[in-house]
Amino acid sequence: MSQTDPTDAIETIAIHAGSEPDPRTGAVVPPIYQVSTYKQDGVGQMRGGRLAGAQDGPGRWIEGYEYSRTANPTRGALEECLAALEGGVRALAFASGMAAEDCLLRTVLRPGDHVLIPHDAYGGTFRLFDKVLTGWGVSYHPVPVSDPAAVRAALAEHHAKLVWVETPTNPLLSVADIALLAEIAHSGGALLAVDNTFASPYLQQPLALGADVVVHSTTKYLGGHSDVVGGAVVVADAELGARLAFNQNTTGAVAGPFDSWLTLRGIKTLAVRMDRHCDNGAQVAAMLASHPRVAQVYYPGLPSHPNHEVAAKQMRGFGGMVSFRHAGGEQAAVEMCGRTRLFTLGESLGGVESLIEHPGRMTHASAAGSPLEVPSDLVRLSVGIENGDDLVEDLRRALGS
Ligand SMILES: Cc1ncc(COP(=O)(O)O)c(C=O)c1O
């Protein structure tokens, strides 16, 4: 049981949910239960009670701790914290964001089903739909999810079972109106799933806006320190949560105890990190917007961003992800990525340290030749929490002014 109260603010939840002092020792941080199996007090008499367990098929609950694929106390602490942060009834922690997506999709979709996906989705998500799920008879249709009329029309045309939304999107930072899309999806009989990786629950809470499911790559802002890969699914409905838990246990891509512990530790500073990411992101975006070697900046905090008003309505801040098109073209963009001092050339995002990358040749290479191909002169920045002036200076130097 958590120490949190329903009235607690998210800064408090991030630190306390799932982190009740250890009942045996009083340790203020949940221990790493690096264990695969548990002593039973008699055959089938497990310790830990029903809350620890998972549903083993319709109606039968595994009571307590039996085996760590099914339930582990350190993973349980993380899952309790994630559920509280997103305002969901249940969260499940996975070995990666892609494992979380895969489990969710195989739980809610069947052969013959259709899904709407953002026309600028994360390349790995696109690859999962394009290269894996199509093989199982699930078809996908890319739509600009920042355009509600286009989503409504695509839903009517394809009778999609699921609307998949990323907001802001990776790497073009377009923003979808979650409340409006929830209404549209539900009126068309579809579920709305939101990949909340770029915003984190500190900046945006999709379930409160009407979404049915939230997905995370916890590798990013939740973990926050570029030292662990993980994923999560959070649901508003207990029955869907039980089906997911059954499939998670059955297919097995769970988060390990140490990875769960690292993620939980990262989450404790989520609020202060996100505030700084937002400040630095805004400072970097403002500099780029007035730079002669930058053709276009993508940052939802800029008033010129086409979805700025929607972002301002549903997000507490605009985050630390900034993309831009280099006015010098593809080669200039690629070369710039190798010239920064503080921004490290690398994939991933959301850590305390700033990263730079070329999506067309790196994170989104798998979308080449598809409707999701990204501009070749695009550079993506994950703006960290270093000193903002230092970061601006680093980029100016790398741009050549
Ligand atoms: C928006 C988004 N969703 C999902 C993922 C996949 O997460 P993971 O790399 O933890 O599997 C990523 C990874 O970059 C991402 O950026």
Output the keywords.
single chain, 401 residues, alpha/beta, Aspartate Aminotransferase, domain 2, Aspartate Aminotransferase, domain 1, 2 domains, 7-stranded mixed sheet, 5-stranded mixed sheet, 13 helices, 12 strands, 14% strand, binds pyridoxal-5'-phosphate
Outline of this structure?
By secondary structure, this protein is of the alpha/beta class. It contains 13 helices and twelve strands. The longest helix is centred in the last third of the chain and has 20 residues, at 270-289.
What does this structure look like?
Helix 2 packs parallel to helix 9 (257-267). The chain is α/β, with parallel strands linked by helices and 401 residues long. The chain has 2 domains: 10-267, Aspartate Aminotransferase, domain 2 (3-Layer(aba) Sandwich); 272-399, Aspartate Aminotransferase, domain 1 (Alpha-Beta Complex). Strand 4, helix 6 and strand 5 form a beta-alpha-beta unit. It has a 7-stranded mixed sheet, sandwiched between helices. The relative contact order is 0.13. The protein is built from 13 helices and 12 strands. 35% of the residues lie in helices and 14% in strands. The structure holds pyridoxal-5'-phosphate. Pyridoxal-5'-phosphate binds at residues 96-98, 122, 124-125, 166, 170, 195, 197-198, 217, 219, 229, 231.
